[in-house]
Design a protein that fits this description.
417 residues; Transferase(Phosphotransferase), domain 1; 4 domains; 6-stranded antiparallel sheet; 3-stranded antiparallel sheet
Length: 417
């Protein structure tokens, strides 16, 4: 028989009359206000303490009780949600918690995303959660996490998706520190392929960051978590001036609540992610609101002050990707691919020696290659033609000689006869 979902801090508090339901609700609403304003979201227990609703002793008692409940749960039967058996928690997102689970009917491991209970009474968040599932389920690309199934069980909204056997880019950076340039470019290029794909469907991800980028054991990169996605399909839940995204990587236009954003906003977030990969930390520091203000107005800190191995050519790419004005960023993904390729080839995209321009250079390389191949082909055809003509000439001379000899022999035969 399936167990109930694990108890939360607020459930234990209310059930044991350690605080009133209204007091808990007040603190939860304060958390939501902090989240919407981009401020650091304080833990529920910290807010309860600050408001004087609970004492430190009571908070400590609740945490002890939760630990005991968790240990007891581990001894019982596995938690079940729908057709899925929960194995363990992977992490939390803006809208839900992600678990590693076993899909019983298919006998395979999946990642199961379950909408946070606090959003179950919010119609907008439920719609957004289902929108994420529907949108992601329609997409199919090797650099996107594939969604399998969406459903509801005992009031819980969930959807299952491909389980990536690996780690997040965030975990990788935290463990290894700043990345070597070529490795960072390889990862960025794979994410850019995913952005290029969803761009064809007029989809803007709006929350590209290291924590939403998975890398499997073979090095394949996959972009996931479409909880803040912006598309033509979600106009029914869009709110004017709405600010969604993660402050450390949010674009200026997102931070200002601009509704009409496009893929260049994702480009900005990817640029901030690139910066984090190369320097070991995001571009700006401070509270959520402070960081967003810096994204809007502050110059990009030079990553070479942290990692002096970053070449000037890469800094140029970074600066263009995170330009404050979307019109100053790359205007199509091919330009970014081309600049990245030039860097990998040891070329500087800004070099004055290559005054034809970056895109022109790449095209010129290809054109010259085609021309060289064409010239080679034409030369080979001409050589073959000359060789054939030579054979014909030699054959003609031989035949002429034979005819001459034959004619002489006929004349001699007539004279002698």
């Amino acid at each position: 028989m399936a167990r109930k979902a694990p108890k939360t801090f607020e459930q234990v508090v209310i059930e044991n009359a350690l605080a009133t339901e209204d007091q808990v609700k007040q603190c939860l609403e304060l958390q939501e206000s902090q989240r919407k304003n981009g401020a650091d979201v304080k833990a529920l227990e910290d807010l309860m303490l600050e408001k004087g609703f609970m004492t430190e002793d009571r908070i400590r008692a609740v945490k002890t009780a939760l630990d005991r409940i968790a240990r007891d749960e581990e001894k019982g039967e596995p938690v079940r949600i729908g057709n899925y058996e929960i194995i363990g928690k992977i992490g939390d997102g803006g809208l839900g918690t992600v678990y590693k689970a076993r899909q019983i009917s298919m006998s395979r491991d999946v990642a199961l995303k379950v909408l946070h209970k606090k959003w179950l009474s919010d119609e907008e968040f439920k719609k957004r959660f289902l929108l994420e599932a529907r949108l992601a389920g329609r997409l199919s690309h090797q650099n996107l996490i594939q969604v399998y199934d969406v459903g509801r069980d005992r009031g819980l909204y969930y959807f299952s998706m491909e389980f990536v056997d690996g780690e997040t880019l965030e975990d990788l950076i935290e463990r290894e520190g700043p990345m070597e340039v070529t490795r960072a470019i390889d990862i960025i290029v794979q994410v850019l392929r995913a952005i290029t794909y969803i761009k064809r469907f007029d989809i803007v991800h709006r929350d590209i960051k290291p924590g939403n980028i998975m890398i499997n054991r073979s090095g394949l990169v996959k972009l996931g978590d479409f909880g803040f996605v912006k598309s033509k399909l979600d106009h029914v839940i869009a709110t004017q001036g709405e600010v969604l995204g993660t402050p450390d990587y949010i674009s200026p236009e997102q931070a200002m609540g601009v509704e009409d954003i496009d893929w260049r906003s994702d480009q900005y977030s990817l640029g901030c992610t690139f910066y984090h990969m190369l320097s070991g930390k995001p571009p700006y520091e401070g509270s959520g609101s402070s960081v967003m203000r810096q994204h809007i107005k502050a110059d990009l800190p030079d990553p070479r002050t942290i990692n002096n191995k970053i070449p000037d050519s890469v800094v140029h790419i970074l600066e263009r990707m995170v330009a404050k004005d979307p019109n100053d960023r790359y205007q199509n993904t091919n330009e970014i691919f081309e600049d990245m390729e030039l860097v990998k080839m040891g070329q500087d995209p800004t070099s004055q020696r290559l005054d034809a321009g970056k895109s022109t250079i790449i095209r010129a390389f290809k054109i010259e290659k085609v021309r060289a191949q064409r010239a080679k082909t034409e030369a080979e055809i001409l050589q073959d033609e000359i060789a054939r003509m030579r054979k014909y000439m030699v054959l003609s001379f031989v035949l002429s000689g034979i005819l001459m000899v034959a004619l002489v022999l006929v004349l001699l035969w007539k004279v002698l006869s």
